Amino acid sequence: MQVTKPHFLDLIKNKKWRELKRSLQDMDALDLSLMVENFSKNDKIILFRLLSREQAKNVFKMLSQSDQEEVIEGLSENSQKLSRLLNDIEPDDRTAFFEDLPRDIAQSFIEMLSPEERKITVQLLSYPKDSIGRLMTPEFVAIKEDMSVAKAFEHIREFGQDSETLNVIYIIDNDWKLIDDISIKDLILASPEQQVSELLDHRFVFLSAKDDQETAIQVFKDYDREAMPVLSEEGVLLGIVTFDDILDVIEEESTEDFHKFGSIQNASKNPLKERILILYKNRIVWLVLLVFMNVFSGAALASFEDVIQQVVALVFFLPLLIDSGGNAGSQSATLMIRYLALGEIQLSDWYKLIGRELLVSFLLGLTMAASVAAVASFRAPEVIVVVCIAMVINVMLGSLIGMLLPFIFTKLKIDPATASAPLVTSLADICGVLIYFSLAARYFGF
């Protein structure tokens, strides 16, 4: 019988530990991790004390960082249980957990590891943050090319139990330099008497331990692999990166880009558990900067005070015009950032896109001008010409700003996601006010 959250809490309340432990044994790790997401800290600890070592390891890796920290803190009273869990966690998952902890706390946990696991952890943490070395695991199976297929399977059976994946087997020389990789399918279909060397084509794809994690995303996307070997500068096989680790990186990168596009400085792990001060600090910097940017819009309005006093109807269309320019710019920026991230366009393609963007934005501007003309014909027919021309120009200019900013930021080695919607909108607002009232002043003879 699968345990539901209410049933779980009821068993805890009535201290039916044996029944609870027996019920948990048949539950999947994913179901367990989903069930305990909203548990209190105390209930999480009870759960982990009842799980088997294998279950505890698998459930732990599926929890959020904040939930993981609660579990570790709760188990700290039982150093043996905590040490066992930290040693059981896969090296790459353990590295991901440790790198987000304060250094002194991470170090205290590292001291609880066995000598072998400690050596692995220290090595992985020695690689630069966000490098592929932080993602890899040393748990893989490697064989020699002079083995027979039958001998290779004996080796796999002996050493493959703790491997992260057995879908790909790596071929190394005596110095642990990678020669090739081979799928387990090819080994299974080969004759037991064949030499492994007869199955090799010496064509393989690899990653460097010091490369950025975004490199791994692109390589996995290009070559459609389940796992990828990670080599040192000398070609020595250090570990492997698996597809599930890349999915986690993609999720983190996407979350970070969404936050940047909303002008939020740092991503929050969980807004329900994050401190108010942290949430405030993550958002206030860009908001204050944008306030000062929008002062220019106010200054532009003040310089056209005479025009506004004489033709008050112009004010009615001001929000509509500047919002349209900002919205068009945000659309364009979103598309460019996405195309750059996917590699569908390159930095050198910016000049090829200008003509296309001008034509598209001109057509958009004309359509929106027709719409605003219909509104102006009822509200203020005398400003139709000014409003329509301003609409076309604002939409075209806003689109160009939104298109070019990601390229400029990329050229300056800044994440193009920083060319966020609020920034594009603020720039389009300033330009929109100047264009609109400059046209009005000339048209009405001020």
Structural overview:
This protein is mainly α. The protein has 3 domains: 122 residues, MgtE N-terminal domain-like (MgtE N-terminal fold, Alpha Horseshoe); 107 residues, CBS-domain, CATH 3.10.580; 154 residues, Tetracycline Repressor, domain 2, CATH 1.10.357.20. The protein contains 20 helices and 6 strands. The strands form 2 sheets. It has a 3-stranded mixed sheet with strand order 1-2-3. The protein has a 3-stranded mixed sheet with strand order 4-5-6. Strand 1, helix 11 and strand 2 form a beta-alpha-beta unit. Helix 4 packs across helix 6. The longest helix is centred in the last third of the chain and has 30 residues. The radius of gyration is 30 Å and the shape is elongated. The chain starts with a helix and ends with a helix.
How are the strands of the largest sheet arranged? Answer: 1-2-3
Could you please say which CATH topology of the largest domain applies here? Tetracycline Repressor, domain 2
In round numbers, the mean pLDDT is 83
Low-confidence stretches: none
Alpha-carbon distance between the two ends: 82 Å
Largest sheet: 3 strands, mixed
What's the SSE pattern? Answer: HHHHHHHHHHEHEEHEHEEHHHHHHH
Radius of gyration: 30 Å
What is the number of helical segments per DSSP (H or I, 4+ residues)? 20
Helix content: 55-70%
The outline comes out as elongated
